[in-house]
Amino acid sequence: MTDGAELADAASVPAELWEAFLRYERAIMDDDLDLLDAFFADGPATMRGDGVGLLVGHEAISAFRGARGGVPPRTIERVEYRPLGDDAAMLVSVSRYASGGTGLQTQLWQRIDGRWLITVAHVTPRAQPLDRSVWRNVGDPFLHGAPDGPLRGLTVAVKDLFAIKGRRIGAGNPAYLADARPEATTAPAVADLLNGGATLRGVARTDEFAYSIAGDNPHYGTPPNGAVPGALPGGSSSGPASAVATGQAEVGLATDTAGSIRVPASYQGLWGLRTTHGLVPRQGLVPLAQSFDTVGWLTRDSATLQRVADWCLGYEGSESTENPYGRSSDDLPWRLLVVEEAVAAVEPETRRSFEALLEQLASSPDAPSIGAVSIGPLDRYFEPFRAVQGAEAWRNNGDWVRAHPGALGLAVAERFRQAELVTPEQEAAARAEVARLQGVMRAHVSDAVLIAPTVPGPAPMRTRDGGFVDAVRASTLRMTTPAAIGGLPSLSAPLLTVGSLLGAAPVGVCLTSAEGTDIALVRAARRLEAAVA
After folding, report:
1. Given pLDDT bands bounded at 50, 70 and 90, which one contains residue 463?
2. What is the CATH number of domain 2-124?
3. 268 Rama sector, left if φ>0, alpha if ψ -120 to 50, beta otherwise
């Protein structure tokens, strides 16, 4: 037990320090957040790190701890003590978990105002053979690709909506997975990657039926945010995004209906491309709303995204792409239009960071022409989008939802309940407005590229209540739906950094261009990246 742990140089450990260590461990087992907070030195210099990342400042550590949840039952079986002075000491402890495996905790304790407090901590958790919040199935590899090709060496996390021959689709819900049958063929979007030489690392989680934007899943757990420990990962492509951000795959094959590639890309500091609607076929894909569902990719760097887009959207690489390259063989005009309504909708620090980027871009040797454009109130896009999406989501999945009462998490169940209420008259009116707005958006990108922050601000903490997360979801969708309504390619690039309760956090810069210019859009984003490097 902890009190009887093997302790090196026990006699030399100050009694007050040993008692503080024991009380801290008991607080961990009791998940006593107030007492745990009290054992960490207050102030901005306190640090805690683990395999996910580094937190600096008592406030950030406290916020993370509230999101983490309790620690599995364990005992401390060994402690090493090293004095660093009269009022400072290092304790390194080995913990053994009741369910198997060991971990390591390294703590710098300092006596401050007569109390021993932790000022620096590093946690090495036990080895995890499979993070079920990220992966449904995983292998090394899960499925081999072609022996050679331009994507050789890349591993892919496939969102659990795509068909893979001989495997079932889970769509983020265990009851749906139980009903599913093995697929007879592999989706073209998956086959294109395999034909290019990439290998599949596994099938990654999605929010239920891709009907979410936060990234939380009530059945399998919430995948980690690879950039901001303790924050939501962004959805519905949360699994592929987290797999890429944490280094478990190089490419995430995902979908974007209303922002499900761009939002997790922004939250986790990734590159994410939503392709032109209809450019990549959706055969073998569980639909949410066909009028907006689009295939795309997530990567950690722009060069990898370029490799994937060049192959999967090019003449040689894709047998499935309906209109390879299109206008992408030509560079886009180096003319950027700032979307006024989107900038007005973001949080103040995001706006300041974005405006600083524009100033830096304007003074760079490769400065583009920068102007502004008004696309109209964002609610005018969001409301008809939501009606059409809801009507299609209910037609696609309503029978299954009715047949499986209680199978959905509360948030997604409520969205389907609202979707069922969309009347034919409401849908028809919304479709007419969507068609009008599509023309508006396409006119704006006829000779320019739209630019704005991808989302209002950094990823919310996982501990925020449902009402707050719903409010963030609504404000986010207002920014992401115009490109979806336009059927346009839209790319989130990790070019902004803002503060959050959990520390420095990424926010994406979104570029949107004319239909069919997807590959050229990636080149333009890389040019922007170089200009502000």
Report:
1. confident
2. 3.10.450.50
3. alpha
